[in-house]
Amino acid sequence: MSYPPGPHNPYGQQPQQPPYGYPQQPAQPQAGWGYPQQQPQVPYGYPGGPGGPGGPERMPPGPKGARVLLIVVAVLEVLFALIFFAFASWLSAADETGEYSDYSGISWFVGVFEIAIGALCLAMAAKFKTGGPSTRVGAIVLGSLIVVISLASLVIGGILSVFTLVLGILVIVFSAKAETAAWFNRPRY
Fold this sequence. Notes:
- The protein contains five helices and no strands.
- It is mainly α.
């Protein structure tokens, strides 16, 4: 045997282990050094995803449904406001003694309140394309407000409030979905 041992000698020098501490892990290959890299899948056309940077962004079905429902609620609220305005003006015209003036004033107030809720619904629906997480929270709060108002209206006999009750619940459900949260938490450039 010759000294020093050759590179193929099985009894040659063994690799040195550190004397103490955690055992060393083998080195991981660096990105771009012989291993093909897979592009991450980014949903809904976010920058760098299938739509590419600056490409069109697609709104997923959850927030799109909540947006459409908010628009439908806004239209219904405006229609209800017109009904209250017509009732208030009819009461004012038919009341010669003044005993129904309180009901007329309440009807005018409720009509204005319905218009305000409809305007809030339209404003919230308009922010769905560019809004952040606060828009999602606002939609959930607005849906809850619609549910409470609809329940109060059902208690006093407003059977037409069943429609807004169902739509308010659906706005809450669609706004609380994970895909809606992902849409509002997406990076905006």
